[in-house]
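Side project, low priority. Logging it here so it doesn't get lost.
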Amino acid sequence: MNINSENYYGDNRISTALLLAAGTGSRLYPLTKSSPKCLTLVSEKSIIERLVTNLKKQGFTRLVIVTGYQKECIMDFLGSKSGNLTIEYINSPLYQTTNNIYSLWMARNIINEPFVLFESDLVLNTSLLNEMVLPDKMAVAKMQPWLNGTTVSLNKQNQVTKFHKGTTDTYTDIRYKSVNIYSFSLASWQAIIIRLNQYIAEGGVNCYYETVFSEMIDDKTLSFESVSFDDKPWYEIDTIYDLAEAEKLFPIKLKKRAV
């Protein structure tokens, strides 16, 4: 059975992606001095070019990008079309004083269908998205000593039961690192918008959207089934060190010489 087939998941297959790419990428300076993080080259190919390639291979037809810092660079690089993928832009003018919760909120009026949410610092093997094209999924990887950030707990059915803020405290249960890729059904997205509106109205523009997801998991107004990213390479690039590690996982492919 070919899991990559565009028809495999039938009507439930998601074909819209949202990319949050408004930030300044300050931890990658000086590489981000005059261009956004998503245009950083990983083994001679930019993060965003890799994502677009992955999306097209998975049959996505719409990509919405929330821009901010150096937005013209992204727009000039991608344009409005790549193969069968239509590309649209939302500019976040407050990108310097807001966090990713505000970028996600910016998409509330332009997306009215199931979608997959991406951050602009991820490189990954295309096949890792096979299961993410179904709604209400969350990409995770087993927590390792070199990873940091938000973790989650899972039950025996691989459902996310709890979000945990990044911590150095010891814990007894198995924790899983959020890979920062989520898929949403339309019903889930509509419920999230209501909560986002509340946060923004109360001035919570510097929060992380994980705070909203965490609260909704706790009160059972949102649910995610986990998708393991442990079997194939992926990397989150925040620093120059991360970039070096990512290039080990995604080396330059040498072209075969003609005989």
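Brief comment: Helices lie at 47-57, 71-78, 100-106, 186-201, 209-218, 240-249.
Revisit when time allows.
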